[in-house]
Amino acid sequence: MFKMHTLQKTLRRSMFKGLLAGVVAFATLPALNAMAAGKQDFTVVNVTGYTISELYVSPSKASDWEEDILGRDVLVDGDRTDITFSRKEDTCLWDLKVVYQDDNSSAEWSAINLCEVSVVALHYNEKTGTTSATFE
Question: Looking at the domain 39-135, which fold is it?
Fold first, then answer.
């Protein structure tokens, strides 16, 4: 009887530990996913009132804009797009450029610290004719 009671107690502890380990593993999945992604990942939100036809993101130290991230797509007013980086990317300072679909005008921002910024919201002021950005 003693051995059976001890065995049941041991099994319950093992089951509890296994369940606890599963809960802890499940709870840490978002953190693991964040670590697997580049720390510079961010979201661009278009609240300009206009459609953006081109979007460029390049390291601040780069001498050119590289390729249009949107490709054939556009970013219409009110939409957002997620920009993801390779896990091995270690540069934090990036430049951003957008080109408007209606007149090919553009706006640029330099040295955005994407290791600290997760959302870039783009705004257009019709009175001044300027595009601004807010960083979260």
Answer: Immunoglobulin-like (2.60.40)
